[in-house]
Amino acid sequence: MNDTFDLPDGHRELHRLVMPLGSNSETLPLYVENSANVSTFEAAQGSSDEVMEALAGVRRAAAGGVAGGSYTRSGITVPAGQIRSFGTYFNAFPASYWRRWTRVREVTLTVATKGEGTIVVNRSSVNGRSRRVASKVVTGKATSTFTLPVTAFGDGGWYWFDAYAGAGSLEVNGAAYSAPESLARVRGSFSIAMTTMNKVRYCFENIRTVAESPQLLELLDVMYVIDQGSDRLRDHADELAELEEAMGGKLRVIEQGNIGGSGGFSRGMYEACIAEKSTYVVNCDDDISIEPISLERLVTFADFATKPTLVGAHMFDLNNRTSLLAFGESVDRWRFHYGLANDDSKYNHDLAEHPLRATRWMHRRVDVDYNGWWMCLIPTDVVREIGLSLPVFIKWDDAEYGLRAGNAGYPTVTLPGAGVWHVSWGEKDDLVGWQAFFHERNRLIAALLHSPYERGGRLVKESHFMDIKHIISMQYYTQTGRLMAQRDVLAGPDHLHDTIGTDLPEIRALAAKFDDAVQKKDVDDFPAVRTNRPPRKGRGFSQPRRLLMPAWTIKQLAKQALAKPSSLSLEHPQEAIAHEDARWWKLSHYESALVSNAEGTQLAWYKRDPKRARELLTEAARTHAELFAKWNTLREQYRSAAKQLTSFEAWERTFAANPAPKREDQDA
After folding, report:
1. Phi-psi region at 336: left, alpha or beta (left = phi > 0; alpha = psi -120 to 50)
2. Is 525 an active-site residue?
3. Quick one: which of 10, 92, 99, 123 has the fewest CB in 10 Å?
């Protein structure tokens, strides 16, 4: 309930106006804009002196961000003659999602103001076109209400309001969209399952954010922090004790061995279920920055959903905080690869440069297959029915869970207005190095469980192509991990729980045997770059044309596996290549090269090794032939084992078998 006004009798808040926590001006465009649809306002209101003065103020301030005025968490002061629009990510109301997934067919917008001005309510359609639907002139201290139907939002569209100040400033002291409480299926509470490993600062900051959010804390039963690291929260006893007190007994830290994200999240989901208090459990990464209203909105939406529903938040770039990384994701069943759910949408869309109101594809509702576990709410009854995560350590656990829930009749909704900040995928490259094992193995397992196509559609063929790309790129460590993954899948599902705590140490132990996995900090840590003859006579590189690809690939494979590299290339790298330029079709032309990592912090020396290339190519051909031949048999094995693999009983044994290392063992 907002302190500045009362909602209509029997109503429950669905979505309220919020402004950034603290004074974070970087994220302000996600909450408010200073420019509105001027032509619509002119047409609707005429050309009185007051209106024209307000419009002139908008035009003067349009280039300056949110110029002038002050704000609190729940409101903002609009300077005289200016306009503020709340047609933004966190403050526009995503009407089409409520129309599709709940029984709500009408919402009431309540706006509390002080001063003279006009409140204008707008809506958009599926194609992003917007129009005014209502307006009200306000004076003094006022509470304005608008009844807004959502029946016409079948495929997309939002509601929002704009505040126009008159001759003096206009205070917007609060606003909320509400609907009858009787439309809710339940009134639930939730627990948080946060997995952490050596990210104490992030973790403490997120706990503090929750503790300092009274309305959120009221909904929370327990925040479970599953600590799998060597730098543990309990090592910072004074700060932890302070946070435990602030959380009022709602924080529980559980230490266990490193069994990955799937092991950590499964532990949090398990604890929330056996406690039998919470309606929902929210899986959260540790290295995020939380907007606390997001958690409230996930719970509220899940309460109103017509059936038990998984509800997730969007991810924004932690280092470019107005950049939305993806607006919803799905799994391409033919390739069995995840990607954008809407073909028109864009990765890394900067809402400071291209606001919501001006981004047409964001007005179409996007239906998804899954939501990443950076923040995703799951009903505990669903967990009890379909089980915990697959025991796959990391990668594909969240996507597989969304597919499994969907097959059981429980959809996933990625809810606009619920978002977290996380490091962008573009600043990582987890397809190279030790994580390649988990990407490859878990993608194959997920396809065996959920692909509707015989022999996995294009997956086996595409996987073999990926092997070839890594081999001709001299990424022998990565390819060795991928082959280990393929053999692991061929061995069947029975060992997955037994090896969840040992796979990572085994893979990482191999790194020392591969030049492309041994990283150093500076170019000067390696021999000087030197070459007698630059590849392609010094000309640039480009990806081979599609029609020429087969012949080009055969030629490159022959060179990689048969041609002896020059002695100079083994003593000196031929080139230093930035990560951004390290494409497979470029690396294939070199006999050796220094290649930087995605973070730009280290380099590795790639060296062509014909003997190793031959061995890896031979093994890749063998494993893929076997995967293709045995696909149907493997599919039956994995599908028959799935219920047991994800059961509470199997995970209980795994938790018991992987306790947190004792300090003396860890130090050793």
Report:
1. left
2. no
3. 10
